[in-house]
Design a protein that fits this description.
4-stranded antiparallel sheet, Multidrug efflux transporter AcrB transmembrane fold, Alpha-Beta Plaits, 12% strand, 308 residues
């Protein structure tokens, strides 16, 4: 039975990706991302309850006001963070609240968790400044350049460019989905993007390494480049699927059974790992085919001109 021609249908894969990325870019330009308090600033409230409370009790109460994603930290008597399951001292970091909204939330907390005393309440600025974001983007671009150089040294420059374009594809897909869903973007989102980049490049390099191994024997037998890529992809497909399903099952468990504060992080990983597996199989290798054919055409053009 003939296997499906993955490389030969590359225009379909490119079109599917564009159907997600282009609307995502439009939404990013018009509506933007839903930045969390790490980027926008917010309010800090220190409370001292009469009876010990748990983080989940406080979070359940805040969820009634769509504030379930707030940072809630239990503190000891000295004001430092504690690993205890419950405490009388609680610090809540949430979005900026108006006075009437804050009073309403305090009344609900008192009804749900018991009486308390407000030790401190103040508005704070963003913890992730513009300079830090710029540095993160710069670090990402530098890492892509180093990936191109390393892969060009180990393989060839076209492999490096194709691998980086596949990484850009994955990041754009994640950004597009977060623009669609308006899930909160905070400091953990940056960590998720870096994790996705590390996973995706690893899976892509495995396929490229198999293409390199098959190139000499394949072309000596007169095979074409599409057949070469299809053979290499199918030889590594089982490994790729086992890897992605393993990480997806683990991440899905974190998303569905983890705490409220990990859901957006886990959601970004779910989208990124899925996109990374897709791009490694359906995007990176076809991009390499296009780059190689373009280079071959450029080399053939002077020869044809000389013959004419």
């Amino acid at each position: 039975m003939n296997k499906f021609d993955i490389a030969g249908h590359r225009k379909i894969w490119f079109l599917l990706s564009l159907c997600v990325i282009i609307p995502g870019i439009i939404l990013l330009a018009t509506r933007g991302l839903n930045f969390g308090i790490d980027f926008t600033g917010g309010s800090i409230i220190d409370l001292q309850f009469e009876q010990p409370v748990t983080i989940q009790q406080v979070r359940d109460s805040l969820t009634k006001y769509d504030l379930g994603g707030s940072t809630i930290q239990l503190e000891g008597a000295s004001g430092t963070a504690t690993d205890a399951s419950s405490s009388q001292n609680v610090m809540v970091r949430t979005v900026a609240l108006e006075e009437d909204q804050r009073m309403e939330i305090m009344d609900t907390l008192k009804a749900d968790c018991g009486d308390f005393q407000v030790l401190r309440q103040e508005k704070v600025g963003a913890t992730i400044g513009g300079e830090l974001i710029t540095n993160a983007i710069l670090a990402l671009v530098v890492s892509w350049a180093l990936i191109i150089l390393y892969v060009a040294y180990r393989f060839e420059w076209r492999f490096g460019v194709a691998a980086v374009l596949a990484l850009v594809h994955d990041i754009l897909v994640v950004l597009a989905v977060f623009a669609f869903t308006q899930r909160q973007v905070d400091s953990s989102f940056i960590a998720a993007l870096l994790t996705i980049v590390g996973y995706s490049i690893n899976d892509t390099i495995v396929i490229f390494d198999r293409i390199r191994e098959n190139m000499r024997l394949h072309f000596r037998r007169g095979g074409d480049i599409n057949q070469l890529v299809n053979t290499s992809v199918y030889q590594t497909l089982t490994r790729s699927l086992y890897t992605v399903f393993t990480v997806l099952f683990t991440t899905a468990a974190l998303f569905f059974f983890g705490g409220e504060t990990t859901k957006d992080f886990a959601f970004a990983l779910l989208i990124g790992f899925g996109s990374g597996a897709y791009s490694s199989i359906f995007i990176a290798s076809p991009i390499w085919i296009m780059l190689r054919k373009h280079s071959d055409d450029q080399h053939k053009a002077p020869a044809k001109a000389a013959e004419a």
